[in-house]
Amino acid sequence: MITLNQPSTAPHLLPPTVREVRYVVQTHMKSMDDLQEEVQRALGSQLRPEDLLSLSKKLQAEFKEHLITSPQCMLPSHNYVLPTGKEHGTYLALEGLNVCLDAIVNDSSAALLSRAYVDPSTRLALILGTGINAAIHLPIASLHRSKFGKRSMPPADEVTNVLVNTELSMFGKKAYPTTRWDELVNSNHIMPDYQPMEYLVAGPYMGEIVRLILIEATETTGLFGGNFPPSLSSNYTLDARILAAIEKDSSPGLSSSRRLFHKHHPNNEAPNFSDMHFVQQVTRAVSRRSCAYATAGIHALASLLENMEASHQIVSTDADSINIGCDGSIINKYPEYMDKVQASLDQMIRLEDGGRKRVVLEKTIEPAVSGAGVAVAMAAGAP
Question: Residue-wise over 327-365: b if at least 16 C-beta within 10 A, else e?
Fold first, then answer.
């Protein structure tokens, strides 16, 4: 077996992820081409538009159960320890500060408010970067009464709609196909199974899945000359920014990627062309699947809205498309990510039986600022 830059190190002293990969993979050598084909097959299966439509239907059933008909609320996925003040009522009491709290928004709701200010027909927003989340605009009457806890339902003539933070990251455990590398990511996580969609599509997890595949390739195919870069021995050390640069690299011999990779993850020798070509192909397979799985989630939410319009549960906007405000580092910076999601959405809708509105992704501009401003203006009763 090829060791990871430490020929005499006992297995129990290797990082946990490396040990677990050793138990998962077979110890005999295989060619890099064989493993690359295996990666493409594992990550590329069930990504056709018809497969994604089937996946979307499974997610729609989850959304309907948990977002609308269930009495439960999805728990927030971040900020378990509030940074300042004391927890009080719905959120915080800030002591000693002359602050009037008019509205609270998170990333997804801010993106929806920001885009809706520009385009009032916007009813969805997507955040995709270090995590994934979405917000949706729904009629308040469609939500289970118990979701409001001890608070009384507002009068129907005063409040007809509500902005719902979906906690999208927490869906999809039983819907999404996974690979052995996904199972390692999940089992090594501090909160296994808590955010199944996020573990498959968000930036840090894209990097982690690629890292685990590279560990396996080093052990079984001799990638990097059998010496794994020491800086990548710990979890979540392969940044999505590096993946983005590698994915789009078209320099002769992938020289730009080879220099960049060796700069951030030095090794005995810089990676050769064969090494970097393998890394690039793996990166593209991982990002392609991330795009596809994110597309299925977006399509499911848009379909939920459109089905509610068709059944007159919500008033139609009369727009010929469902517009989604988008933000996040992967959306904004990963090469062609948003364009690929848009293309997949278009393919899925063409496959459906006529009458479906086009789903259009639109970037938001500084939603953390503009969305919060819109929320405060609304709370203050501004026209």
Answer: bbbbbeebeebbebbbebbeebbeeeeeebbebbbeebe
Residues in contact with 78: Cβ distance below 8 Å, sequence separation at least 6, in sequence order = 131
The gap between the terminal CA atoms of the chain, to the nearest Å, is 70
Residue type, 141: A
Residue 37 tokens, joined = 């084909």
Q: CA-to-CA distance for 325 and 185, rounded, in angstroms?
A: 29
Which amino acid is present at 218? T
Percent helix, strand, coil in the chain, to 5, is: 50, 10, 40
Q: Which residues pair with 361 in a beta bridge?
A: 324
Residue 118 neighbours by CB under 8 Å, 6+ apart: none
Confidence of residue 85 (pLDDT cuts 50, 70, 90): very low
Phi, psi of 358 (to 5 degrees): -70, 140
CB 300 within 8 A of CB 59: yes
Here the tokens at position 181 are 């590398």
Query: Residue 71's pLDDT is what?
Result: 53
195-242 confidence digits (pLDDT tens) = 999 999 999 999 999 999 999 999 999 999 999 999 999 999 999 999
- List residues bridging with 368 in a β-sheet: none
Q: Give residues with Cβ within 8 angstroms of 368, minimum separation 6.
A: 107, 110
- The string over 28-56, giving b where at least 16 C-beta atoms fall within 10 Å of a residue's C-beta and e elsewhere, is eebebeebbeebeebbeeebebeebbebb
This prediction's pTM = 0.85
Q: What is the largest CA-CA distance in the chain?
A: 74
CA distances 206 to 37, 125, 132, 275, Å, are 19, 22, 12, 19
Question: Which amino acid makes up residue 346?
Answer: D
CA distance 220 to 124: 45
Beta bridge partners of 125: 135, 325
User: Which tokens belong to 194?
Assistant: 């808590």
Q: Would you give the distance in Å from CA 130 to the centre of its chain? A: 7
